[in-house]
Specification:
Elements: H1 10-29, H2 33-48, E1 62-63, E2 69-70, H3 75-80, H4 83-117, H5 128-136, H6 142-151
Antiparallel strand pairs: 1-2
Length: about 150
């Protein structure tokens, strides 16, 4: 009990491990068959529920201009790399909204220019009969209407 605070060297720890393994193997030889089977089943269960070991993932390593070897990634850029697509998306949406506003303004300006430069007064466009006339177009059979006028 007085040796609890002492640390074992690596060789002493190895010797202790080998001695413990030898004693356990000797004890396992004299165990009854049913206890051996239960111990084997318990060991298999413990192995099946153990935590998976960490796997070492290797990254490609490239030489830089200065000849230094690096993995090609910078932790600072890795943490903010998701911002670039977000910024592009936001600016794209702003550009589309601006383009639609400009298009709408140009369409309204064309209609206003057509109304102001036309011979028809703007009040005529408010008349439903005039709108029906515009939809149907001018009289297509001017000879037929001329015949009707002459026959009367």
């Amino acid at each position: 009990m007085k040796h609890l605070n002492e640390q074992l060297t690596e060789s002493q720890a190895d010797q202790f491990g080998r001695a413990s393994a030898a004693l356990l193997n000797e004890g396992a030889q004299v165990l009854p068959k049913n206890i051996k089977e239960r111990l084997y089943a318990a060991r298999m269960k413990a192995i099946s529920v153990r935590k998976p070991e960490k796997v070492l993932v290797q990254k490609p390593v490239l030489a830089g201009i200065t000849g230094n070897w690096s993995s090609g990634s910078n932790a600072r850029w890795d943490s903010v790399s998701w911002i670039a697509p977000l910024v592009v998306l936001v600016f794209g949406l702003i550009a589309i909204a601006q383009w639609q506003d400009d298009s709408r303004i140009n369409d309204i300006a064309e209609v206003d220019a057509a109304l102001l430069s036309d011979d028809v007064p703007p009040d005529a466009y408010a008349d439903s009969g005039f709108m029906a006339f515009l939809k149907n177009g001018p009289l297509s059979d001017s000879s037929d209407s001329a015949d009707l006028v002459q026959s009367k």
